[in-house]
Amino acid sequence: GNGKVAGKLSGRIVDADMHDVARFLNRLLGLAPDIQNRLFDLFISILDVVLHNARREGQLDSGIVDIKGKNIELKEPPKTVHVDSLSGASTILFTFTIDRGVTWESAKAMLDGRENDGAGSSNDGFYESKREWMGRRHFTLALEGSTEGIYKIIRPAIGEALREMPLSELKGKYRKVSSIDKVSKGWQDEYDVSSKQCMHGSKCKVGSYCTVGRRLQEFNILGGLILPVWGTIEKALAKQVYQNHKRIRVVRLVTTNDNQRIVGLFIPNAAVESVLTGLQWVQDIND
């Protein structure tokens, strides 16, 4: 309930209710609609900041994460990296190559398909960023989703973005481009550059281990028997320099060439050697 001072309502939320989101949302229903909307917008903006900070610090737990890409294939045969002395079960390292990008031809076909079906909106189309990043402007394809005024964002390097974008944000950050020649060249350039380089450019502090905005990625999953060696993996990841390399994440993917389904622990490229060294040490102790 509301806090009271000398028997009078103070408007302050008592400590017991501070983390009760359901009660907070129910109380919003007792307010005028315009105030509800403003409070809810404030709530969502704060939540976005909290999630952004957690994601940046590697502390956001998203449960099982589905890894998606235009093309996902095993780079090499799986390697047995540990065998449990009691059960004989194996821990296996899978290394995949993932292409997340969308070619210019595919992007153009998406837009043409919408226009031919009459399903698109007048704001569907190709956009160019208003600001330069690392000396270049970036291109994107925006298509209105199932909610009016909310757009799916498709980029050359990473395909469809996880977060859809309101029209106001889209127009604030990008300008619509009508010149097909300009878009096709910009799209192709970004598609090509992102095959080997992250969005931070050649001087990125993380170097070749950075995957932000990189189209082609090498992706490692540790599968098979995991629980007996969980602590060893956790210790190896804890030694990593970068915060987002330290957290254990359970991931799932399906290969595009043979529909092989793999579930396991994501191991960053920078941590593979440390993890394998730890598993070998456990193997030597058990033997």
TrEMBL record:
A single GO molecular function term of this UniProt record: chromatin DNA binding
Stored Pfam families: Helicase_C_4, SBNO
**What is the designated name of this protein?**
Uncharacterized protein
- Origin organism of this chain? Aegilops tauschii subsp. strangulata (Goatgrass)
InterPro entries found in the cross-reference section: SBNO_a/b_dom (IPR057332), SBNO_Helicase_C_dom (IPR026937), SNO (IPR026741)
Write out the GO biological process terms.
Answer: regulation of DNA-templated transcription
Xref: PANTHER family: PROTEIN FORGETTER 1, STRAWBERRY NOTCH-RELATED
Listed GO CC annotations:
nucleus
List each copy of the Strawberry notch helicase C domain by range. 11-66
Q: For the SBNO alpha/beta domain, which residue ranges apply?
A: 120-215
Q: Which domain of life is it from?
A: Eukaryota
